[in-house]
Amino acid sequence: MCQLNKSKSKEARCDKDRLKYSLAVSLTAAVITGLILFFLIGHGDSSSAHLAITAFIVMVGTAITFFILWTGRVNLLRMVTFIGMDGLIFTIALSLEHEVNRGSILLTSQALNNNSAPICPITIPFVAVPYFIEGKMIFPSPVTSLFAVLFMWLGLVLILGRGWCGWICFFGWMDQFFASLLKKPIIPLENSPKWAKLFPYAFMLFLILVSAVLLIPIFCAYMCPLRIIYDPPGVTTTFQWITALIFVTGGLIFLVIGPLLTKKRLFCSFICPLMPANSIIGVINPFKVKIDTNLCKKCGLCIKNCELFAINEESLAMGKTTIECAKCGKCMDKCPAGAIDYKLMFTDQRIRLYFIPLAIIFNLLIVSGFVWMIVQYLTTGEIGSIP
Ligand code: SF4
Ligand code: SF4
């Protein structure tokens, strides 16, 4: 019994017990998650490849949901889906798609001229605005791709808020991976100065304005560090060498070395133009991460461990995270008092039991599409185009 425990470590364990669900509840939620995944992914095709993918996804979804709810620990298994499923599977699928459909992972001028460059959700703020205002598609891919990605992103952000950045984004895995490699940061960064927190909002606005005026997606063309992995530009002219240098330097600083040394997700915190949009739209999302100030021991571990600078002393005193919270659950796992949990907006109602299955279902729904692309390639040598 929790109340009878005398030692400090036992007390801490008991404090954390409040985040766990019973075996029966965890199993029920896991089975329901598996059934929903089976229904969403398994219908419409009875080929053995499709059945195998469905079985794999259902198994992963059921197991992860069960263990998160039953153990009360979120972050480690979230990272299995976020880095392992999104990151690895997405990267393999996208690289294969580039190789098969355009012959190289390099984004060629031919692909640009043919309007066949794959669009990514990060482009939404500065590509959608010129399209809606001026009717101009400034990214070299079809308008249908813009709408497909826009609706997918918007739907998920309305459902999960900035949970998109903690559970769904198939680019966010990269700084997440490097931020989680070392046990302790070599350069400890706890709080981010106010100007640094405002920078991504100003940067997003700048990109929208410049893209709307010049009708060029300048972030993708000249800045995006993600291109060192997904779409390295062909380099022949001096100007292209200079832009390539920007991609590589930015990639190393914000995606690899910076996160490794600081244990913070620097690209997602300061550079990604989608982050401010996710945070602002996420304000109306019903799933919130809240701190019970009566239980809090004021140890500061949550502030220290948050990889996205989403708790500070002021927000902690008010029992909440900032709007940049990606609902990753790391602070919950680190808190010795078990004081942090997913709660329903405006209430103290715990909603971990609903948030976790939802996040896992949406993550795996997207992953299943990329698994399908890889299986298609292995079985036919062909691969369907992605939006
Ligand atoms: S406040 Fe907690 S849940 Fe939110 S991003 Fe930081 S560690 Fe993750
Ligand atoms: S980790 Fe944060 S919420 Fe938990 S006791 Fe320490 S200061 Fe309070």
UniProtKB/TrEMBL annotation:
Pfam families: Fer4_5 (PF12801). One of its GO terms (molecular function) is oxidoreductase activity. InterPro entries: 4Fe4S_Fe-S-bd, 4Fe4S_Fe_S_CS, Electron_Trans/Redox. The chain crosses the membrane at residues 21-42, 48-69, 116-133, 145-164, 198-219, 239-261, 353-375. Residues 287-316, 324-345 form the 4Fe-4S ferredoxin-type domain. It comes from the Archaea. PROSITE patterns: 4FE4S_FER_1, 4FE4S_FER_2. One of its GO terms (cellular component) is plasma membrane. The keyword Cell membrane does not apply. Keywords: 4Fe-4S, Electron transport, Iron, Iron-sulfur, Membrane, Metal-binding, Transmembrane, Transmembrane helix, Transport. This is 4Fe-4S ferredoxin-type domain-containing protein. It comes from Methanosarcina spelaei.
